[in-house]
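Service request form, structural biology core

Requester: graduate student, group of Dr. S.
Request type: structure prediction, single chain
Budget code: on file
Notes: please return the result as structure tokens.

Sequence provided:
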Amino acid sequence: MLLYLDRPGMVGALPLPLFTGLLYAAVITPAAVLTAVFLPGLTKLSDAVQVSRLCLATGVALFPAALRPLADQPVVNATVVILGGMAIVGLTRWIARDNLGVGASA
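Core staff response, request fulfilled:
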């Protein structure tokens, strides 16, 4: 998978990992802006999915022997990232509901 590529090399004057990160940011940033403008109800999920992706990338960097094979499979990678984002959104709603006392019995 291109996003988890840690091979040495240069593209122009940039190291390959930096180039792939910038390329990813160049594609994702406009998509996130368009989502925020045209589908504002999905911004929480979009943000949570990006946090989930960052957590997965960090896990792959810390434990490459165990997690790289999973991250290299696109279906597993996407499933982990999307379910992680959904779990983050659910957890934040649960915490907010708990802190606001919604549904608490008197």
